[in-house]
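Support reply, case 0932

Customer input (verbatim):
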Amino acid sequence: MSRPKAAAYRGACACGWRGSSYPIQWDQVEDDRLDDLDTSGPYNDWSDHIRTVDRQTVPLPAQLAETMDRLEEQLTTLAEQAPVAALKAVAALERLTGHTGREAAHAALADELSWETIGKALGLSPGKARSRLTSYLLRS
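Our regenerated output:
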């Protein structure tokens, strides 16, 4: 007896969004190896969704966004060339983001923003926004 096979696949997002279904042509998939499947359709759907959500979120200041892009590039390179140094940098960032996240979460709550407003600004559902802020508040 064989396992049932999926009829289709689609992109999905943590916010609950689900993309269009793409049928799986099992006769064109060698040895049932799904890693050979062309996932460009669902990936493009997901990318479009992320761009739409991003346009609706609170924008980051351009200088900060550029700094974060440069930091990501540098950390990626460092992880390849000096992984332990990259881990040290990540630990420092975790301390920094923990403190800043906690301060920002307290400020957002003090502003009495609704979970819907916070969620939309972050590109999250209200429930996930509440969970995110709670996790920031609980960091030490």
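We compared this against your earlier run and they match. Two observations from our side: The beta strands are 8-9, 22-23. The first strand starts at residue 8 and ends at 9. Please reopen the case if you see a mismatch on your end.
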